[in-house]
Design brief:
heterodimer, A: alpha/beta, Rossmann fold, six-stranded mixed β-sheet, globular, B: 2 domains, eight-stranded mixed β-sheet, 58% helix, elongated, binds adenosine-5'-triphosphate, binds magnesium ion
């Protein structure tokens, strides 16, 4: 499903070029649950953003679900993110002024789903994350764990094949963190491919495969 | 297919965003409202001004043409040069066979000396003019009492007079009806046969030129009798009425050519038309209106800058949100549209409010002055279109900046 070949990526700050990824080769099959690990600054988030089609590759080949990503323009990248990918962030990134339901509806608005379908799909995805009774709550009226569930529901609502997850438990206590990870396990069992960045071993243990990054290269890849 | 739903969803999003920052949204709505209201009010005031001027110009008869002898011509005939240069032969010739576009003509005869005007021991300083029975129609005059001259009064030199309201007040007292009473002009006794309706030329008088004569302090008598009193067949000028305003210039050319053809090439004539005055007034008034509209537009511009300012702030504050929206599938166009729409919502709501304010101001002004100043559908349409344009113009730069944010950078923004 995901195929990365010789990926390079650097950031430019003024005249200084900071190389972050130095030749990544990685293949992830549909249905896998992969954890990306490594020390801070090793390029985990950078790699995840490339996989999520949020950033462009300097050199190398990337194909996702049979589409060649390297050469796409903004509109096509937006379409791929809308149709194939769901994002979950450490800081939830819910829009504070609108209810849980409206937050979850957003990706469907960009995918031009009609109002009636949006309503039924939001309800069913809320049920999947166990928050049916919180639909009309505002983000500030929800606990951290509940906010992350809303974010996961939002990521799932367009039925993506791939969830791209960056430190999903980083802002949660261990009990809430565990519950979130059990939710991901369940989703993976239902057939969703998950790529997750974490630097905690016990969180990584929920995945079937752990990829270690070191200085922008894959150091270890074990299942 | 892109449906109404598509736009409706995005409109709702814009309302949520604006509701989130209520005070800021209200302030920028007010900015636009003031701008639109100011433009409309200035428009109404200047339109009122031109109605005022035109209603006064109308008191001279809109289709009027005045024909004079040009005193600078090379006429070798001293005899005619001594007088006014126009006489009864010219009058009858013009009247009978001059011009296809001429509807009516009256000679205008004045006296070089002032006559004493009195009744009993009351005096008047009115100006006396000798005219014919068409004068009232040509000069757009109306009578409140009595009747006009009949052609026979002119022909027989009957000692009859039409007098203005100030003359009535001076000789008989305010609000009295002097029809049938006698007045003395010079040595002769005249019977008052009618009273002229009051004419307002306050505005024109205030800017000079036409204010020279007081339209309400006039006495009209048959020109034939006045010529006899003066001992001269001279006519000071002719006052003509063209068939239409558009034909006034043609009439003045025809009349000049006719008189020249009749009297010889050494004779020169001058004309003035109401149409020229109206054109001049029109130019001055639209100049004034333009200045007003420019001044009011500046307040609209300030309103637009206000929107630009709050949109810029909003883009900055919502950087993370923009990154998030891109991550969940928004394209650059989606983001551009979102922020543009927010700006347009502000400016259109502001514009509608301004429209209501401006329209109320115009309607109140219309009620006070009696002029038709109520905004037309076209004005309303223009105000709304301008509001939308202001929204697009002021929202475009912030919206484009938002749309071009890099999603990764935007998500990292604190
Ligand atoms: N926009 C950027 N501009 C410049 N440098 C950047 C940018 N984004 C990331 N970097 C640099 O790239 C390197 C990798 O960053 P990245 O965020 O991928 O690390 P990470 O592995 O996710 O770290 P952490 O565990 O702390 O989240 C870091 O040295 C970082 O400073
Ligand atoms: Mg990171």
């Amino acid at each position: 499903m995901i195929n990365l070949q010789g990926i390079h990526k650097s950031y430019h700050m003024g005249d200084v070029t900071v190389p972050v990824l130095n030749g990544i080769d990685l293949t992830i099959n549909a249905g896998e649950f992969v954890a990306i690990m490594g020390p801070s600054g090793s390029g985990k988030t950078t790699l995840l953003n490339l996989i999520g089609c949020l950033d462009s590759i300097d050199s190398g080949e990337y194909s996702l679900a049979g589409e060649q990503i390297n050469t796409l323009d903004d509109k096509s990248m937006a379409r791929i993110r809308s149709q194939h990918i769901g994002f979950v962030f450490q800081l939830f990134n819910l829009i504070p002024r609108i209810s849980a339901r409206r937050n979850i509806e957003l990706p469907m608005i960009y995918a031009n789903i009609n109002k009636a379908d949006r309503f039924t799909r939001t309800s069913s995805v809320l049920e999947r994350v166990g928050l049916s009774d919180r639909a009309t709550h505002m983000p500030t009226q929800l606990s951290g764990g509940q906010q992350q569930r809303v974010a996961i529901a939002r990521a799932l609502v367009n039925n993506p094949e791939l969830l791209v997850v960056d430190e999903p438990t980083g802002s949660l206590d261990s009990k809430n963190g565990e519950e979130i990870m059990q939710l991901f396990e369940k989703l993976n069992a239902e057939g969703v491919t998950i790529v997750m960045v974490t630097h905690e071993l016990d969180i990584a243990a929920y995945a079937q495969r752990q990829v270690h990054l070191l200085d922008g290269k894959i150091d270890q890849d074990k299942s | 297919m892109i449906s109404i739903q598509f736009y409706f969803d995005r409109l709702i999003q814009a309302f949520y965003a604006l509701r989130d920052n209520r005070l800021r949204s209200v302030l920028s709505v007010l900015g636009i409202a003031v701008g639109i209201a100011a433009v409309m009010a200035v428009g109404a005031v200047s339109k009122g001004g031109s109605y005022l001027v035109f209603s006064e110009l109308e008191t001279f008869g809109l289709n009027s043409v005045w024909v004079y002898r040009d005193r600078n011509d090379k006429d070798p005939n001293r005899r005619i040069r001594k007088g006014t240069g126009l006489d009864n032969y010219d009058y009858y010739a013009l009247k009978d066979s001059c011009c296809s576009v001429m509807e009516k003509i009256t000679p205008m005869v004045f006296s070089s000396e002032r006559n004493i005007i009195q009744t009993g021991n009351r005096y008047s300083n009115a100006r006396v003019s000798g005219v014919n029975s068409d004068y009232l129609d040509i000069n757009n005059d109306h009578l409140i009492y009595g009747r006009n001259f009949r052609p026979i009064d002119i022909k027989r030199r009957r000692a009859s007079a039409l007098i203005g309201p100030t003359v009535v007040e001076d000789l008989f007292g305010k609000d009295s009806n002097p029809v049938g009473k006698d007045i003395r002009i010079g040595l002769r006794r005249f019977t008052v046969i009618g009273v002229l309706e009051e004419k307002s030329r306050d505005f024109l008088a205030s800017i000079g030129s036409a204010g020279g004569q007081d339209a309400n302090n006039r006495i009209l008598i048959p020109f034939t009798l006045f010529q006899q009193m003066n001992g001269s067949k001279a006519i000071n000028f002719f006052h003509l009425k063209a068939r239409s305003l558009e034909e006034a210039d043609l009439l003045s050319e025809q009349a000049k050519a006719f008189l020249k053809r009749r009297n010889g090439k050494n004779y020169q004539y001058k004309t003035e038309t109401m149409a020229t005055y109206i054109g001049t007034a029109d130019r001055i008034l639209s100049g004034v209106a333009m200045i007003g509209v420019i001044a009011a537009s500046i307040s609209l511009l300030v309103g637009g800058l206000g929107i630009m300012n709050i949109m810029s702030t909003s883009v900055l504050e919502r950087t993370r949100e923009i990154g998030l929206r891109k991550a969940i599938g928004a394209s650059q166009t989606d983001i551009l549209m979102q922020f543009l729409l927010e700006a347009i919502v502000i400016s259109t709501v502001g514009g509608s409010l301004g429209l209501v304010l401006g329209a109320s101001a115009s309607i109140i002004l219309a009620m006070i002055t009696g002029f038709p100043l109520t905004p037309t559908p076209l004005v309303i349409l223009i105000a709304l279109v301008v509001s939308v344009i202001v929204g697009v113009a002021s929202g475009f730069l912030p919206a484009r900046r938002a749309s071009r944010l890099h999603p990764v950078e935007a998500l990292r923004y604190e």
